[in-house]
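Exercise 7.
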Amino acid sequence: ADWRLVAAAQAIRRGEFKDEFEAAAAMGKSISRRREVESWSKKLEELEQRQAPTRRSSRLLVQHPWVQAHLPGVQVLEPPSPVPTEHGHHATRRLAAVVSKTSGSVQ
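Solution. The predicted structure, written as tokens, is:
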């Protein structure tokens, strides 16, 4: 990777230049197509999205049909959003539930 193209993409994303040609020239790189810097801008955006804190997603929520099928004794389940680990590769949650027993409910 040409670090000058990456630096130009970063500068464009920060709004420091009016276009990719100007940004590349400021970094000492002559380009013939805007795409040379745009592709790095897209890659940088993807990296930012990957590093962003985990957002609440319907894919990560415990669905009611799953609870009914796998945990029939659970009356109430309150799953919070996952908390990413330090490196963001995994996440943990602390669950709170009300479970029915033959002698009553336990929280």
